[in-house]
Design goal:
Largest sheet: 7 strands, mixed
Strand order of the largest sheet: 2-11-10-3-4-9-7
Strand content: 25-35%
Oligomer: single chain
Structural class: alpha/beta
Distance between the termini: 18 Å
Shape: globular
Helix content: 25-40%
Number of helices: 7
Radius of gyration: 15 Å
Number of strands: 12
Number of domains: 1
Length: 188
Amino acid sequence: MLSGYAEKGCLLRLPAQLRPLLAAPPEASRLTALPREALRLLRYRDVLAVGDYVSQWLFALGVRPRAYVYDCATRRGGVPCPPPPEGYSVVEAPNPRGHLNPLLFRLLHAAARGGRMLAIRVHGEDDLAALAAIAAAPIGAAVVYGHPGVSALHLAVTPRLKSFVAEVVSSMECVEPPASTSAGVGEF
């Protein structure tokens, strides 16, 4: 399922009519305070994270995602961009607001499958990267991402969730070739 996303060779744009589908994704669990059970779950599963605060929150709890995506912004405002923890390779990727760069699918897939642990610094916006994380994650993994005004959402990756994401991504519009990316990306 992943290869179709990554090989489209174009930026994918989310049409306005699809936005309501992402307001409350299926199988989402709201995390306002992390209970012990959830912390245990996150420590022993493959985890991919999206969002500046969510990623830092997981690190503070001792959870080390296989990859995390951040844009040094929250709610369209800039936030400090802390260096990644030891053991993470930093990769930069352009990703305009309301779009998905196919590079994100490839990077997250490589990390989720046991490649290097990645800190993916997005230039633009990371909001839709949760779709790429779900598409890239194996069944049984967890994707945790920030949801403005809600807190953080934890999604257990299931066949049903992957099918939902495949439907959304296949409905996105192919708009233009992606911009060039940082050096070293070809290694992944």
